[in-house]
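Q: Convert this sequence to structure tokens.
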Amino acid sequence: MAALTDLALPALRALPPEAAHRASLFALKLLPQGTVAADPSALAVRAWGRVFPNPVGLAAGYDKDAEVVDALFGFGFGFIEVGTVTPLPQSGNPKPRLFRLSEDGAAINRLGFNSQGIAAVARRLTSRNRSRGIVGVNIGRNKDTADPIADYEKGVAALAPYADYLAVNVSSPNTPGLRDMQRKAVLPEFIARLQSARAKATPRRPPPLLLKIAPDLEPQARNEIAEVSLFSGLDGLIVSNSTVTRPTSLKSAQAHEAGGLTGKPLFAPSTALLSEMYRLTGGRLPLIGVGGIASGADAYAKIRAGATLVQLYTALVYEGPGLVARIKADLVRLAARDGFKSIGEAIGAGLQ
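A:
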């Protein structure tokens, strides 16, 4: 299936970015669900009591409303993250709000949590084939909510029963005030309330609760997040979301657009933050490394910097889903080159 969809890339890139995104979702609904060969045992990674067949996942943002989850596993992902999901449906920011930076292997979005809402996503996750693979659910808040924390509680309560893990998005730059929830003054109560909502929704086997953080944090905020994460019993961090910075190296004409920058320019800063959070947490929390991965070498660098798992999205726009298989093959080769029997042995190896 990956080869077929790779062939469609030129046609998709001829469309405006958001129209191409919708077209790809429509096509996946029509195509038969693909199967892939079992991954080599050297790629298996254990986290949160679960075995991931490989560490390469699809980041939140593509399948926002859990429309094609089972089909996506046909590309060979080790896990899929859907969302961001808001309690009530909302349309997001005005269009155009998604821009390709082709010369930079990047994209800018200011989507603003466009979402069909938790009821629609819960309905689809209820009917999905859970044997297909591990699915995380990324939850957010509505733009005009009066009680942001209550919005996240609603997401946890509704979606925890269907999630293999929950990702709490407090780091998108496109919802006013959202990033303020990363502050130490807010985080302890915030995490505690979500843990309580999770316990009520899933008393027998609560899914891990992860926090997705921004790459633009000041040093003090990084220290505070690490400290709160450890003493609050948070289960992990996703490092990182898109950046509001604009490197001077950007060449594309649309580099000036407002929103979050993703893709290759995000690789270096997000990987630096990843290694710092691994150090600050003493390697005690599983980390998901995301930002700028476009090759097996990139994914391997994230793992050596402390990532237990990695995610990609923007590179798929330019390379197609066949990239997933190429990354996995490179990970096996690179781990063996460095004398590791499994990819898990390479986690944090670059920091020792």
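The chain has a mean pLDDT of 93.
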